[in-house]
Specification:
twelve-stranded mixed beta sheet; elongated; Rossmann fold; alpha/beta; 16 helices; 2 domains; UDP-N-acetylmuramoyl-L-alanine:D-glutamate ligase
Length: about 475
């Protein structure tokens, strides 16, 4: 995903918010036809790069998504491209009929033969709430299978925009999905995002939408000030436990993500790199150090009585904290009752369920809805991680991360993520911003790592990911 051109281009909108945003543009003097031309011509620019003179087939549905398809087809035809439109049915909206009238190329019905190199899906857009009919599904599947490359416009047909649900059992896999006007939740949520290929956005002038979620994007960071020293850059306290390797992984990642000083509180220095400071003193003493700017607790902590005590001591520190791994299973409202600093929790699906039980959430709804409910119930920032990652704050802010490398599905990568977020907290970012920055650095480090990387190799890529933000 490329950096957005303006802040509003980073918005994620529900289908209802998108309709209202388009209506606002029309109230300001635009029209449905003008917006359709902007969207269709912008999408055609991306498709033109792919087709490079090869045959293109555009499948148009009855609504405005089909109208976008006619604009795309006419734009490609006017440039000298070889394009055929397959109309699943006649246009049913005024704008789609107008776009159809302005297309001067070939149109076949749903039974017509069509084959080529690039298939463009403009059957249905973001308003779909029920499965495709048997006829539409068969047509979509046949055309997708007959082409080497597949492009979805706005969303793949058969996907629910607000939840990312796949409404038909087996939908085609796409090489490219071109979002129109704004990102939708389905562009970031599983299982739909796994079928979309590369994501691109065509802006149409949508303004800022109140309460809109945002897409996690490359943060803008800066090098330390000329007179900086290690404490001014932030001191992160990492609380170790019975499995020290996890805390070491988190600490090493934190060193590369911006904090000036990372100190591991553990019982042993065994197998710890020389440049990672280990403090073996009593935890109650070392965590009262007023130079601490953030605390990380959980990786390798264990779940016994000693682990509960270490968690309680860590959360008694007034500075912001990241709670991860084992600590999430031990966390409950009582431990957060007296918290002064921000608390960031980083659960995977199983840990998310445990936290929902602990904080009285029913676990219903989409992943963003669940994360928001837990954030509100616990007064904490929730990083609901996994193949799709959602970040929610108690005040209702919400962010979704772009799909990251599937090679992250290996042991220890969550410890690296926790270290990245905690480092950004220690460096001075607020809890929500630190979570977004840490998630981006984690994903970028994975992109730069070789296939089948280990958690250690992932951590080694964090400084390079940070450098990309400077």
């Amino acid at each position: 995903m490329r950096p957005s051109q303006s802040p509003q281009d980073n918005q994620i909108l529900t289908a209802a918010q998108m309709r209202e945003a388009e209506a606002e543009l029309i109230r300001q003097g635009s029209s449905v036809d003008a917006l359709m031309r902007t969207a269709g011509q912008g999408a055609a620019e991306w498709i033109w790069r792919i087709c490079a003179g090869r045959k293109v087939t555009v499948l148009c549905g009855p609504g405005n998504n089909g109208g976008d398809g006619y604009v795309i087809a006419e734009t490609i035809r006017a440039r000298g491209g070889h394009v055929t439109v397959v109309a699943a049915s006649e246009p049913q909206t005024d704008a789609a009929r107008n776009a159809r009238a302005l297309y001067h190329g070939t149109v076949t019905g749903p039974d017509g033969a069509a084959e080529g190199d690039v298939f463009v899906d403009c059957l249905y857009g973001s308003g779909l709430t029920r499965p495709l009919s048997a006829e539409d599904f068969a047509l979509l599947s046949r055309l997708a299978a007959a082409h080497h490359h597949r492009v979805a416009v706005d969303l793949p047909s058969g996907v629910q925009s607000d939840t990312g649900m796949v409404l038909n059992e087996v939908l085609p896999l796409y090489d490219l999905t071109i979002a129109l006007g704004a990102w939708k939740y389905a562009h970031f949520l599983m299982p739909s995002t796994a079928r979309m290929g590369t994501l691109r956005l065509v802006p149409i002038g949508v303004g800022p939408v109140e309460s809109a979620a945002i897409a996690v994007s490359r943060p803008r960071l800066s090098a330390p000030d000329a007179d900086a020293h290690k404490y001014r850059r932030g001191l992160l306290a990492v609380v170790g436990g019975v499995m020290p390797g996890a805390a070491v992984l988190a600490g090493l990642a934190a060193q590369g993500a911006g904090a000036g000083y990372v100190k591991l509180f553990a019982e042993s220095k065994r197998n710890v790199p020389a440049d990672l400071v280990v403090d073996q003193g009593p935890l109650i003493d070392v965590l009262t150090d007023d130079r601490n700017t953030a605390v990380l607790v959980g990786p390798g902590l264990g779940r016994d009585t000693a682990a509960r005590e270490r968690l309680a001591v860590a959360l008694a520190d007034a500075v912001p904290a990241v709670v991860d791994a084992d600590a999430l299973v031990l966390l409950g409202p009582r431990l957060l009752a007296e918290r002064k600093g921000a608390t960031v929790v980083t659960p995977h699906e199983g840990e998310l369920l445990a936290l929902e039980r602990a904080f009285g959430c029913d676990g219903s709804g989409s992943k963003p809805e669940r994360a928001l409910a837990l954030a509100a119930a616990g007064g904490m920032i929730v990083v609901a991680k996994g193949p799709d990652t959602v970040i929610a704050a108690p005040d209702g802010r919400l962010a979704c991360a772009p799909r990251a490398s599937s090679w992250l599905s290996t042991a220890g990568t969550g410890d690296v993520l926790a270290g990245c977020i905690a480092s950004r907290l220690a460096a001075g970012a607020d809890g929500f911003a630190a979570a977004c920055e840490g998630v981006w650095l984690h994903g970028e480090a994975a992109r730069r790592a070789p296939p089948a990387f280990t958690a250690g190799q992932l951590g080694q890529m964090v400084p390079a990911a940070l450098a990309a933000c400077l």
